[in-house]
Amino acid sequence: MTRHDGRQHDELRPITFQAGIAPHASGSVLVSFGNTRVICAVTIQEDVPRWMKYQKVGGGWLTAEYNMLPYSTLDRKQRDISAGKLDGRSSEIQRLIGRSLRAVVDLKALGKRTIWLDCDVLQADGGTRTASVTGGCVAIAIALNKLLAAGKIKTNPMQKLIAGISAGVFQDTAILDLDYPEDKNASVDFNVVMTEDLDFVELQGSGEENIFTSEQMLEMIDLAKKGVTEITALQKQAILDADQASDTDLASLTDAFKS
Questions:
Q1: How far apart are CA 219 and CA 137, in angstroms?
Q2: Which residues contact 68 (CB under 8 A, 6 or more apart)?
Q3: Minimal CA–CA distance to 201: which of 87, 105, 128, 118?
Q4: Cα distance between residue 227 and residue 179, in whole Å
């Protein structure tokens, strides 16, 4: 099967990570899955939520916020603040992002700190939640590497990389990484979050007013495994490139002080 954009059924859209997109953040990337583009930015706060103090919970915390900017879709999306509350979809997605990343971050090793991950969708063309998980993982890894390099933590709390990807059944064929036209017309839609070792973190799947077989489900999961394997290789390179750029900047600053 050749798809409308020329991809094969098991082919990802072009994926890129542009690190340092938000200079004031502890770590940030602009992640792109084709035409879906999300800024993922991390702020590390030297404190923990009040409920952790009251309940005497040790370690730190990680939480996420997700927002689709008004111009991210074809028709302007009203800001949540205009409605006076977070819409149900955004609330569900940011909970998914937060709990997915907490699964692979050792909060005890983080110490009494809070990781705030902000995911802002610049352009939506399907898969914004999985792109947010994927880009958020890279942004957090970059931020934690900086914390480690500064000697503020002794061990890296990031235990494994994770990535999210969509799979579905479109025109009776299982396909990987659905864009908006495919997602809109798919008979089955799956969102899968996995570690770099291909262990499951989260599975969200449903027939869109349809049914699906166990064989189709296994086929979608196999496609997701293939996608996550390819994505985590890109994540590792993006993190390495960001760390090397940070080392270069530090060396340049040191040289400037010496002169």
A1: 26
A2: 77, 90, 120, 121, 124, 128
A3: 105
A4: 14
Residue 216 pLDDT > 60: yes
Residue 208: CB atoms within 10 Å: 14
| Residue with token string 């989260």 | 202
Pairing of strands 188-195, 162-170: antiparallel
| Pair of tokens at residue 180 | 């908006």
Euclidean distance between CA atoms 252 and 172, whole angstroms: 56
Residues 6+ apart with CB under 8 A from 204: 96, 190, 191, 192
Encoded amino acid at 128, one letter: T
Cross-strand partners of 212: none
Strands 36-45 and 61-68: unpaired
Q: Helix, strand or coil for residue 140?
A: helix
| Residue whose pair of structure tokens reads 């999300």 in the numeric block | 38
Name the class of domain 15-258: alpha beta
Give me 97's structure tokens. Answer: 């992002």
Residue 242 to residue 254: CA distance in whole angstroms: 18
Residues in CB range of 240: below 8 A, 6 or more apart: none
A 10 A CB-CB count for 258 gives 6
Over the stretch 73-88, which tens digit does the pLDDT of each residue have? 888 888 777 666 677 8
Q: What is the pTM of this model?
A: 0.92
